[in-house]
Amino acid sequence: MVAPDRVRNFSIIAHIDHGKSTLADQLLIKTDTVENRDMQACLLACPSCALPWMTTQSHALQLPAVSRSLAACEGCLLVVDASQGVEAQTLANVYLALENDLEIIPVLNKIDLPGADPERVKREIEEVIGLDCSHAIMASAKQGLGIEEILEEVVRRVPPPADNRGKPLRALIFDSYYDSYKGVVVQFRVMDGELRRGDLVKFMNTGCEYDITELGVLSPKAVEVDSLYAGEVGYLAASIKQVADARVGDTVTLKKQPAAEALGGYTEAQPMVFCGLFPTDADQYPELREALLKLQLNDAALKFEPEVSSAMGFGFRCGFLGLLHMEIVQERLEREYDLDLITTAPTVVFKAVTTDGTEHIVDCPSKLPPGNRLDSISEPYVRLEVITPKEYVGSIMELAQQRRGEYVDMQYLTETRTTLVYNLPLAEVVTDFFDALKSRSRGYASMEYALTGYRENDLVLLDIKINGEMVEPLAAIVHRDNAYYVGKALVKRLKELIPRQQFKVPIQAAIGARVVASEAIPALRKDVLAKCYGGDISRKKKLLKKQAAGKKRMKSLGKVDVPQEAFMAVLQINRDTASMDE
User: Fold this and answer.
1) Is 111 known as a binding-site position?
2) Phi, psi at residue 342, to the nearest 5°?
C-alpha cells in the first residue's frame, strides 16, 4: 500500500503531435518503470500507468472520456509545442481541467527545434488561458531535456488525493476494454474506501454485480495486487461479458457495504453522427454483423441496427460519437475484418414534431414523418472555435457564414493569431467543413466544437430520384434556403459519377412533389443508320422509330447501378460554385 500523501495523479493535455506520447515514455524511463531494453516508441498507449512513486494518465480521444479522465486526477501537464503554440483542441481540454479545479503545469516541448519560440508561446498561453508561465518548464521529450524538472514540479505542485480510506468504497471508471481471456477489464480511480481481490462489487448506474477475480495496476504491464486504497488507480477483471455493463463514468461500490450515492457526472454516450454501412458483396452481410458485434465489445458507444435499402440491399445503420469515431470504426472494419464496404454520407440526429405533438428522433432522412403531418424540425447546434493565423480570418468567416454560422466572438490571441467563435449547425460540420477549413487556411487553422443543444429551423427533405426511382441513401435534410443550391450541385455531381446506360437516365432533386433541380445522363446510342447507303428517308425513320421504342422499353425495365462514389457525393459537392452560378 502507498500512503495517500505520496500519490500524485496527473494527466497530460496536448494537441496531436505536440509530444505527449514521447514525454510519457521519458517519464517511464526516468522513474525506472521500464528498463531501456524493454522500451519501445510510444509505449504508453494504455490509458493509465503506475510509476513507482506516482500515477500518470494519458490523454483520451473523446470528450466524455477526457472529462472522466480529468475527474480521476488532481493535476495535469499542459504540453504545448514551442514552435506551433496553442491549438483549439488544447484549449477545450484545458477548460475542462479548469472546471475540475486541477493544478495545471505548463510545459513547453520541442525547444530543440530550429523554429521554436518559447517566449512567444509563453505570452500566448498567458493571454489566451490566463496561466502564469513565469515558471513554465522548457523541455524536449525527444532529447530527454527537462524531464527531471517536470517530475519535481509534479511532486511539488500537484496536491495528493484526500485520505478517504475509512469511507464506503466509491471508484470512478474512466476506461474499459474487452480481453478475450479475462472479459471486460475495467480501469478506475478509487475515490473513497478500499477494494480487495475477491470482493463482490456493484456498478451503481447499471446495477450489475460481479466477483473480482483479478485486481492490479498497470506499470505499464499488468501487475496484480491484493488491494487498492483511496487515491490509487488500477484495474479489475471479473468475467464481465459486455463493455455496456461497465460504462465509463460509472461508480464501483461494494455489494455488502454500498455507498449512499454514486459519483456525479455519469451519462451514457449518445451517438450524434449516423451513416449506413453496406457490404459490396451481399454474401458478406453475416461477416459485417459479426465484425460490428466484436467491435461493440470494445466500444460501448458504437450503436447499429439492420437496414434494408432498395439500392444497396442489406446493411446496418450505425451511430457514432463523431466523425473521428466513424472513420476509426470504418477503417477497422476494412483492415481487421477484410470487408469491402459502401458507406453513405454521414447525417446527424434531428428531432421532428408531428401535428399531434409527438416528438420523433430522426437519425435517417427516410424516417422523417410525411410533410402533411410534420409540424417542425429541430437540428443540433455546436459552439465552434477556430484558431487561425490572422491572414485567413476573412476567408474562414466567409466559410462559416456560408454554412449558416452565427458569429459569436473574435479575439486576437497574439499579433499573428486569432480565435473565431461561431454557433453552427452540426449538420454543416459533419460534411466537408474540416476539409474546407484546412484548404482555406493552407492547413494552419485548427478547430474544436462542442454540442450546445437543439434549435428549430426551416428544414426540408431533399429527395433524389434516379430514372424515376427514389434513392433513399442519397436523400438529405437541408435548410429550405439552401435546398436549390445543394440539389443542383448534387444532381450535377451524380451525373458525373453514374456511368451512361443504353437509355437516357434522368436525375432529379425534389422537395415533396416539386422538382428543384434536374440533370439527364444521355443514352449510349448505336448508329442504326450505318447500314443505310442512301435510299428513301422513310427507311431511316423506320429504323430510328424502332430504336426509340426499344430505348423506351429498356428505360422502363432497366436498373441503374449506382457506384460507391455517388453515395458520398454530398461530401464532394462544391457549394461555393453552386452559389456563384446563380
Assistant:
1) yes
2) -105, 125
pLDDT digits (tens, 9 = 90+) for 16-51: 778 888 888 888 887 776 665 555 544 444 455 554
Could you give phi then psi for residue 89, rounded to 5 degrees?
A: -65, -35
Annotated binding residue 319: no
Beta carbons within 8 Å of 327's beta carbon, 6+ residues apart: none
The annotation status of 479 as a binding-site residue, yes or no, is no
User: What is the SS3 assignment for 451?
Assistant: strand
Q: Is the dihedral of CA 329, 332, 334, 338 positive or negative?
A: negative
Is 440 in contact with 394 (CB distance < 8 Å)?
no
Look at the alpha carbons of 450, 454, 460, 464 in this order and tell me if their dihedral is positive or negative: positive
For residue 112, say whether it is annotated as part of any ligand binding site.
yes
217 vs 212: CA distance, rounded Å: 14
pLDDT on residue 561: 63
> In a 10 Å sphere around its CB, with 0-12 CB exposed, 13-18 middle and 19+ buried, how is residue 108 labelled?
buried
188, 235 Cβ separation under 8 angstroms: yes
Cα–Cα dist 65/87, whole Å: 20
**For residue range 313-336, what is the model confidence (pLDDT) as tens digits?**
788 888 887 777 888 888 899 898
Question: Rounded CA gap, 158 and 7, in Å?
Answer: 10
Q: Who's near 49: CB < 8 A, 6+ residues apart?
A: 24, 28, 33, 55, 56, 57, 58, 218, 219, 220
**Cα–Cα distance measured from residue 194 to residue 434, given in angstroms and rounded to the nearest whole number:** 46
CA angle, 325 then 173 then 155, to 5°:
105
Helix (H) or strand (E) holding 399: helix 393-402
Per residue in 467-478, pLDDT (tens digit) is: 878 877 778 888
Give the pLDDT confidence of 365-403 residue by residue, as tens digits: 888 888 788 888 899 898 988 888 888 899 999 999 988
CA distance linking residue 190 with residue 234, whole number of Å:
8
DSSP 232-272: -EEEEE-----GGGS-TT-EEEESSS--SSPPS--------
Task: Tell me whether residue 59 is annotated as binding.
Answer: no
Q: 69 among the known binding-site residues?
A: no
579 assigned binding-site residue: no
Of 372, 334, 384, the closest CA to residue 564 belongs to 334
Query: Which amino acid belongs to residue 130?
Result: G
Cell numbers 466500444: residue:
299
Instruction: Walk me through the domains of the chain, giving residue ranges and CATH numbers.
Output: 4-157 (3.40.50.300), 170-254 (2.40.30.10), 273-343 (3.30.70.870), 351-457 (3.30.70.240), 460-580 (3.30.70.2570)
How does DSSP assign 509-524, residue by residue? Answer: EEETTEEEEEEEEPPP
> Left if phi > 0, otherwise alpha if psi is -120 to 50, otherwise beta: which for 239?
left
Does 18 belong to an annotated binding site? yes
